Amino acid sequence: MDHLLPTEIIEAGRAFPEALAACGDLDALLRLKGAYVGRDGSHAARLMELLKTAPKEQKRDLGAAINGLKQQWEEGLKVRQAELEAAKKHLNALADRWDPSLPPPVPARGALHPLNRLMDRLVEVFRPLGFHVEEGPEVETEAHNFDGLNIPEDHPAKASSDTFYLAAHPALLLRTHTSPVQVRTLLRVAPQLAAGGGIRFLAPGRVYRKDEIDPTHSPMFHQVEGMLVGRGIGMQHLKGTLEYALRALFGPHTEIRLRPSYFPFVEPGCEVDVSCPLCEAKGCRVCKGSGWVEILGAGLIHPNVLRYAGIDPAEWSGWAFGMGVERMAMMLSQTPDLRLFFENDQRFLNTMGGLD
Amino acid sequence: MWIERKALAAEIPAAAALETRQLCELLAALGFPVDGVAAREGAEVLDVDITANRGDAMSHRGMAREVAAKLQQPLAPLAPPPVTEGAPRVQVRLESPACPLYATALLSLGEGTTPLETQAFLRALEASPKHLPAVDASNDLLHRYGHPTHAFDADRIRGAVSIRQAKAGEALVTLDGVARTLAAEDLVIADEAGPIALAGVMGGEGTKVTESTRRVLLESAWFEPKSVKATARRHSLHTDASHRFGRGADPAMAAVARDLLVHRLQSWAGATLEGAWTVGGLPPVPAPVSVPETLLTRVAGEARPLAEGVEALRRLGCAVETQPGTLVVQPPSWRHDLAIPEDLAEEVLRLRGYEHIPSVLPPLEGPPLPLAAEYLQRQAVARRLAHLGFHQTVTYGFISPDADAAFAVAGNPAEGRTLLNPLGQEYSVMRGTLLSSLRSAAEQNLRQGAREIRLFELAPTYTSGPQGPAEQFTLGLVWGGTLGGEDYLNPARPVREADLSGMARDLGLARLPEVRALGEGLFGFELPVADLPQAGARIIPTFRAFSRFPSVERDLSLLVDLGQSHETLTAAMRAVLPAGILQDLRCVDVFRHKSLPEGSQAWLMRLRFQADRTLVGDEVDGWVASALAAAEALGAKLRA
């Protein structure tokens, strides 16, 4: 039969199986289909052209040969198409299968600063006892920072060697503690005190002292002070409140210890220790083996502080406490160097403070 | 202050029976925590922390008084009999009220030196003995009894001695070898040639006792604490004497200390007393203090018998009378810190022990006040930003003038925010911007190898004003480095300025703050916290109705010019869409490729419609067609 067909078509017929096998995807198969059995210009089309001009007596045999070849090609293509479609389906099925062990995309994690977290936590702890938050400026007057707090003229903290003053405003300084907030608040509430029946608040914030920067000192640090003024308030209420708060902060088995101490703005004054929260008072590096850690200073408000604000100490009394936030944060987190809190390395911040 | 155990037991024999740990606990309970214990010169010494108000406790005798009161045990009597006083051998004139009392003695020295036991005692307290009996005996007395005394070389004193205010500009070389120019406020001891000592602070070089000294004039005085403190501060000269006089020495001890000093010099150095005399008298005794029983109760935390107060105060050396419901108390001459009723109530509690204070929660007298809106707002913003992957920083409030100038706004001169006495130039200005501090923190993180920096700070910034710097809480935020690239779904790309605009939008800002380039691939903005939307005011937010009918989403793939503004395009599309029904219109994909016509890009715009009814395909098609027409009016084409 081959003698009826032109040589190039015979060659194409021979090459077809190999070309068909080489089709790796459906696009290639489509191109092959076009080349062999397409409407225009394909091998099959050219054979059909040949048939038109063939002598009459050959037409029958030639037609049968052409049809046979075309059918052969079409079947081959069909089979290959089915194969390729099956393969694609398989690949698609594989692609749709999710490997659960692949790491999922995780949103970027930020963190609150550990000092802010601790201050926020303290506010949370005192909130159920009715404390709100009072704030004041960091650039303060000498009157608010010293005079109103019964800090005498010759107190070391008043010396320019301990305190930052403003060059253009020599009567202004960077507050050395958050206690001026107490003075400001007492001055403000004094007229309404009787109607309101007392006041209780926390004053968290930044303070400044002229300390060189080293692993345990910083010229800027944070304090949280608390103050309560009411009728008949005594040391028992200070102890009761601090016991409640420090247990909420460090755990229900925490013990507290008050020791006499001296601060010009309270009388009596005391240092407050907690049983070491890290070793449960067994003795460790943090508590220097004593089982106790000094945590804050406190006392009953000095009558001169109340008088300065126009509050009669015969009718009103109260207590105040103050704690260093960095010191407590260092102790709780066992951070060895205070400077880490101000370097703001994202690795440190990530380690220290996720969100609660 | 160092306290030697043996020397303490010499003053309060009962202390000898206590173990060191017991003694430390007892001192701590009295308000004198022990910072450390050391062994020196074969003795045990305690490093006792003494608060600024307790000058009386700065000696072995003072500490012994405390221990004796707590243990209810007697102090050892002061051994030597008093020296008999006679006529002055050197004229002493008191010319300032800052020195009401000056006890003195004149002695000729014989042979002999400081006993070895005393030398060891001084060394144990880290006070090196000078092997000059007059000097060492004065030092020994200071540590044992707390009263500073001084010995002058009597043969080097010219004429009468006066205790007077210095004349401004007068000079004195003090024992430390420093030539000091005196101020009129300084109290000095002077002879007829000029000042020979800074009263209560330090003696002068010209009259100091040396190995060749044959005769000494002893000084045991009482100086006003304020005067001594001011002089010590003015000359930065903080000595053992100024510490004790500055905190208030016991005036009644002046003559006793002089007598003790005379006895020591007689016994150690074979001295002969030429005469002893006192000029002036004890300063006036303050009025007694009335302590109401109610105050004793309030301070103790519970009602206590009045007799307990009487007993405790007497143990501390007070003279106490009782009146109905009140104690009338005369504090002892050594306790200058007991001036008001609260001081005395504290003493009663202190002797009883702070451990006995009951623990009681204060009664609530009314509803708690709410937290301030701005405070809540800062907390909410901080938490929001932390959830968005930002790290909160805390940086110093003062920065260098250059760092401040880099971002502070015009009209906020640094002069009004400059510190008089900064730690250094780099900490000299109260900052008008947070961006410099944040930039430093970001750069530091990048140097440490961080891929992406997301930092913020909420802190005051300062604005110069006629009354001083005004403060306002400010939010500063920086973002930089490489975004993404750490999981297979988010390819890496540099942080862009536009990312910060998105962040500002996320914070609910109506107006976008100016985004500043802080460095290569590092952007930041700052704004007053007051400009951020309020949060936390409502416990339950207002209900906004939403449809329960399904929403319909359509995508429009548009070919737009590279210069096309997204804002203009979406505004035009929104304008032709039904406002209540269009829920969202956003660009969800940007495609730029060489296969696209030159100068154009493809935006995939997604439109979401929802109404209080089921939407019909035709009406949605109509809206989409209108949106497309609006886009086409701006030159966009539907992508084939």
From TrEMBL, chain A:
Main location: cytoplasm
The EC number(s) this enzyme carries: 6.1.1.20
Compartment(s) where it occurs, according to its Swiss-Prot or TrEMBL record: Cytoplasm
Sequence positions that bind Mg(2+): E267
Cofactor(s) annotated in UniProt: Mg(2+)
Catalytic activity entry: tRNA(Phe) + L-phenylalanine + ATP = L-phenylalanyl-tRNA(Phe) + AMP + diphosphate + H(+)
Molecular function per GO: ligase activity
Co-factor binding details: Binds 2 magnesium ions per tetramer.
Family matches, as InterPro entries: aa-tRNA-synth_II, aa-tRNA-synth_II/BPL/LPL, Phe-tRNA-synth_IIc_asu, Phe-tRNA_ligase_II_N, Phe_tRNA_ligase_alpha1_bac, Phenylalanyl-tRNA_Synthase, tRNA-bd_arm
Broad enzyme group: ligase
Entry keyword set: Aminoacyl-tRNA synthetase, ATP-binding, Cytoplasm, Ligase, Magnesium, Metal-binding, Nucleotide-binding, Protein biosynthesis
Gene3D superfamilies, A to Z: Bira Bifunctional Protein, Domain 2
Pfam families in UniProt: Phe_tRNA-synt_N (PF02912), tRNA-synt_2d (PF01409)
Aminoacyl-transfer RNA synthetases class-II family profile domain ranges (all copies): 116-343
Subunit structure: Tetramer of two alpha and two beta subunits.
Family in the record: Belongs to the class-II aminoacyl-tRNA synthetase family. Phe-tRNA synthetase alpha subunit type 1 subfamily.
Protein name as annotated: Phenylalanine--tRNA ligase alpha subunit
Organism: Geothrix oryzae
Gene: pheS
TrEMBL record, chain B:
Database matches in Pfam families: B3_4, B5, FDX-ACB, tRNA_synthFbeta
Limits of the FDX-ACB domain: 547-639
Known EC number: 6.1.1.20
Residues covered by the B5 domain: 284-359
InterPro entries for the chain: aa-tRNA-synth_II/BPL/LPL (IPR045864), B3/B4_tRNA-bd (IPR005146), DNA-bd_dom_put_sf (IPR009061), Fdx_antiC-bd (IPR005121), Fdx_antiC-bd_sf (IPR036690), Phe-tRNA-ligase_IIc_bsu (IPR045060), Phe-tRNA_synthase-like_B3/B4 (IPR020825), PheRS_beta_core (IPR041616)
SMART domains, per database record: B3_4 (SM00873), B5 (SM00874), FDX-ACB (SM00896)
Gene3D superfamilies in the cross-refs: 3.30.56.10, Bira Bifunctional Protein, Domain 2, Ferrodoxin-fold anticodon-binding domain, Phenylalanyl-trna Synthetase, Chain B, domain 3
Keyword Nucleotidyltransferase annotated: no
GO function terms (MF aspect): ligase activity
Cofactor: Mg(2+)
Name this protein carries in UniProt: phenylalanine--tRNA ligase
Native species: Geothrix oryzae
